[in-house]
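Deliverable D5.2: sample structural annotation.
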Amino acid sequence: MNKLLLRLSLWLQTLWSRLKVRGAEQRLHQRELDLAIERIVDQANPALRGFGGYRHKLSRVVEYLLHYSDELVMQIPGPTMIDPDSWSSDPLVNALFGDVQRIRHTVSGRVVRNWLKQHPVSSGDNLYALLAVHPVERSQLGMELIRDQVQRDVKQTTLSFKDHELHAVTDTLDATRQALRAQVVDLIASLAIADIVAQEERIAALEQAVRMLRLKLKVINPRAGAVDLTLSNSGEHLAERDRLRKRLRESERDLADASRGLGDIEEYLQRLIALLDHPERHIGLQRMHLWLDHMNIVRDRYHADANEIELVRGRRLDQPGRVVQFICFPRSLVLSADERLAEVERHFGL
């Protein structure tokens, strides 16, 4: 009997511990969801807070938006160690950075320096970040060794990378992924809101056109059919009035069409929800497999000097974007203020 009670007690303790953990996880997730909703409302229109139940109505699409952002972040490869040794031994690092000095400049940028300033005391010798670069493909004429003979003016394609940027710098990979997840949510929300902004700009332009046409009609109406003692006859005024009325009717019709979905705050909310739904329409990722030699010349996969490179590239509305990669780098690579000043002086020959 005592053994049975002991087992029951242990089982209840285990169950209680699991329920506490699950409850804490649910509260943390709900807080993350609420924060994401409020960031989106701040971006879109703070007046949405005046509409009762706005959080409840947004929760479904924002919940999926968080899930989709998490999926995107988990598809990004890495972390890849970025340092002089990896530049010599890792074909991916060699391809991404033209030389070792480019690595030091990249990891010494403003984002890294700001993070180090805000976190003077943190654990670990390495930092983590998302590297984003623009791939540049060029055609050139070069030399090739074909059947033991050097051939000149052979068409070649090179792949290089520019505009190196780091995002979501932290001292752990999990923290970098978490920070990036929030940034992806904000990015997708901004792309959706851009559609509303474009619609609002069109509405404003049409409203201005309608106002101007109505003002012109105020001028022409008294003169249509009346005696003009200056230059024009009444027939011209009548024709002008008819033209203005026709243009006004067309502009008012266009304004009504453009205003659909933004008539009041409730319609605005529904429009925002529709745009946030299916975030995959806004951004996504695509994988690329390439074979490059140490000169970043694109090669056939069976070429003797070819190294396979796997890249993940962002896309927006089916347009290719930047290549992204999680990286890890030693704090010691970050240039000090004196080293940066010395680099500037060398650059300008001072």
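Annotation notes: The mean pLDDT is 83. Strands lie at 80-81, 126-146, 149-170, 283-292, 307-316, 319-330.
The annotation will be released with the project's public dataset once the embargo ends.
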